[in-house]
Amino acid sequence: MTHPVLRLENIVKTFPGVRALDGVSFSVLPGEVHALMGENGAGKSTLMKVLGGIYQPDSGNILMGEDKAVMSGPLDAKSKGIVFIHQELSLAEELSVAENIYLGELPRKSLGRVDWAKLSEQTNAILEKLNVGFDAKTRVGDLSIANQQMVEIARALTVNAKAVIFDEPTASLTDAEKVVLFDVISDLKNEGVGIIYISHRMEEIFKITDRITVLRDGQYQGTVNTAETDEEAVTQLMIGRKLDLTRNASHHELGDVALEVRGLSCGKLYQDVSFELRRGEVLGFYGLVGAGRTEIAETLFGLRDPSAGQILLDGEEVRIHSPADAIAKGISLVPEDRKGQGLVLEMNCRDNMTLPQVDDLKAGPFVAEGAEVAIFDQYRDQLDIRTPGWKQKAGNLSGGNQQKIVIGKWLSMHPNVLIVDEPTRGIDVGSKSEIHKLLRKLAAQGYAVIVISSEMPEVLHVSDRIIAMYSGRIMRTFTSDEVNEDNLIQAISGLGSNEAA
Amino acid sequence: MAALSKAQIGPILAKQGILIAFAVFMIAFTIASPKFLSVDNVFSVVRSSAILGVMALGVTFVVISGNLDLSVGSMMSFSTIVVLDLHDKIGPFLAIPAMFAMTLALGAIIGFLVGYLRLNSLIVTLGMLSAIHGLTLTYSGGQNMDIADKEGTWFSVFGQGTALGIPVPILIFAALAAFLGLVLGKTAFGRKIYAVGGNDTAATFSGVRRARTVFNCYLISAACVATAGLIQASRSLGSQNTVGQGLELEVLAAVILGGASLLGGSGTIFKTVIGVLILGFIQNGLLLLGLQFYVQFVVTWVIIILAVWLDIAAKRGKLWSPIA
Ligand SMILES: Nc1ncnc2c1ncn2[C@@H]1O[C@H](COP(=O)(O)OP(=O)(O)OP(=O)(O)O)[C@@H](O)[C@H]1O
Ligand SMILES: [Mg+2]
């Protein structure tokens, strides 16, 4: 019998108003990939933060080998061989990739001078292993979110790890990047490292993990061998019911063209983009990170000036100078980076949700707080947002619940054109299918919806038409009848025919 | 089990630290000097804090929006000198609005530079501190400014008058605090200030016009400074060019003491008022103990450091931590 690298016993952790962990036990064997699953707010990240020394448990023990261990802080945990790759990125944007990876442990020459040559060399060796397209000297702030994630992962490879925690590492990775990540995980595994893997993506869980432990509302639900279970059983364990995955395929009539884009270009970011979006339609944008999808959304939302082309709303040409402008014209954008662009983390949930319409919710000279609470309650119920109340700071919510606040914020604007960029990043399976249904329902009600996603099943599932982009250009537009995984992949890798050509 | 463990005391101390420290101060002073808590003394503390307090109200807006205003001291000197000068030239009735307009213009310049051009507020207002000082000296020719007929003007009412037995400066401070408290806490504009200070990218993505919001905060700060200058001028009816010198730091101390974070996004008018009073009582207590008035410069600095430390400690939940 192999001994676990580490064991957590009866961990309890409470926050004001929330029992985040209620006597949870969990263990990892050497050389195993152990999945930790559960709905948004189930307590996964909290459990790992206890293990990583970020939170002290109210009660319960951590055992490494036979001995009780106390993780007095993140550095202590790291020195004990526990490496934590966080759900929310924690990199120093102004520093280079190399400095971030070796922060606190930079190689030194005499007199404490940093050995830059050695630093670059070591870093590039790791980056090569990860097969990424940037080098040691790149400034982290210049990298995409996906690449920043890779830097976090690179950081983990520098320590002599006993256990590595991945908290939703793939939430912002593309398929190609995922392959690299899985290789890294399999290498670690072969070296006998215990791996804890948190994700809401079932395919991944079944592809790479050996065992699955499920939490629900802070309580331990059980541990199963991956080989002996299936998605349905795990989902049942997670949410306590079966999931309805059928697509709301009701083919409602499409309305007028709500948005038309003609020959839109923005410098090198994207060129000559044209499309139409009708009321009642969900238009998917699929492509690799860097294909220009987010930049198009940002242009439509007034965050970037196009260098050429026209935007027409309801048949009339418009110029959109700022987000305030876009909002006034009935455009909403759920941005891709919830922490940076979506939320004011220090502000409470209600105020975050009503921020775009705070000028319109008036009771005399003041904000109508009652109306705000009503809006919050409506979307809390509709999106199943788990929080002790609207007064909770948005930053205290679990990652998935934060995302739902952002979605609620923009739905509550009742926009003419709703753009969602990676709408279900970090959202659990149950809520994800709810959000997909919601997007379909909104379309059926006559909303015009644009969905940008790097998850192929998601785009395939919700879209009426799909635009495939590659390197700033539209390669092809598919209807939902003609699209399949193969021709879609072909189109976004630049292999298909270029429509515009 | 009965005793609190060290781990439990830490967070309590950190969270309530400033109030505990204040309570200890108050008790110590009351024992040391029986006059300390007398009605007369309390009134005099609040009255002498009113000028600082009015300025702190405006700076609270600026700090919550994520910026600094180090120019308020020299701007206050400017307002005071200008209104005293104009008092004799065009009469108090016109002098007051004219002075407000000029001070607001200075606020608008700062607001434009920090809000619309996105220049660093520390640099801009530090520069303004000295630029406005130069402006004041140019205006006055370096001379002290005095009203000719000190007995016969109604202008003295703002600094020396009383209504219902309460000194007018206290009434102005209280009314302005109530009004601005509502603006900040209850209006859409106030909400947007918190959003901009908390995360200006997310605020922009939510349709908040960042530049305009920051601009307005500096206008409010300037209006408060003008009001403070009015009280100051009316109280003394004559002034040096440097009457506001150094006030910017005391004002900032009061705001931070009240718990507004220098990173922006948090703080309230109510807390700032508490901060102003704490600072006022401590300085007054030191005087009653017979310490020289310049000791308070050092003490004020110590208080700022203490306040900032406790603020950070409260966020971390411990007094000391190797990571942020
Ligand atoms: N610092 C905190 N203060 C207050 N409550 C918190 C804090 N951190 C977490 N919580 C609460 O604890 C619960 C568990 O959160 P946790 O982040 O562990 O969820 P999770 O399982 O990781 O969810 P997700 O899949 O959305 O990431 C949530 O209800 C959350 O709101
Ligand atoms: Mg989490």
From TrEMBL, chain A:
It comes from the Bacteria. It holds the Pfam family ABC_tran. It is found in: Cell membrane. GO terms for cellular component: plasma membrane. The keyword Manganese does not apply. It is a peripheral membrane protein. One of its GO terms (molecular function) is ATP binding. InterPro entries: AAA+_ATPase (IPR003593), ABC_carbohydrate_import_ATPase (IPR050107), ABC_transporter-like_ATP-bd (IPR003439), ABC_transporter-like_CS (IPR017871), P-loop_NTPase (IPR027417). Keywords: ATP-binding, Cell membrane, Membrane, Nucleotide-binding, Repeat, Sugar transport, Translocase, Transport. Residues 6-242, 252-496 form the ABC transporter domain. The keyword Cell membrane applies. This is Ribose transport system ATP-binding protein. It comes from Lutimaribacter saemankumensis.
TrEMBL record, chain B:
One of its GO terms (molecular function) is transmembrane transporter activity. The chain crosses the membrane at residues 12-32, 44-63, 93-115, 122-142, 162-184, 213-231, 251-279, 286-310. InterPro entries: ABC_transp_permease. It is found in: Cell membrane. The keyword NADP does not apply. Keywords: Cell inner membrane, Cell membrane, Membrane, Transmembrane, Transmembrane helix, Transport. One of its GO terms (cellular component) is plasma membrane. It is a multi-pass membrane protein. This is Monosaccharide ABC transporter membrane protein, CUT2 family. It comes from Lutimaribacter saemankumensis. The lineage of its organism: Bacteria, Pseudomonadati, Pseudomonadota, Alphaproteobacteria, Rhodobacterales.
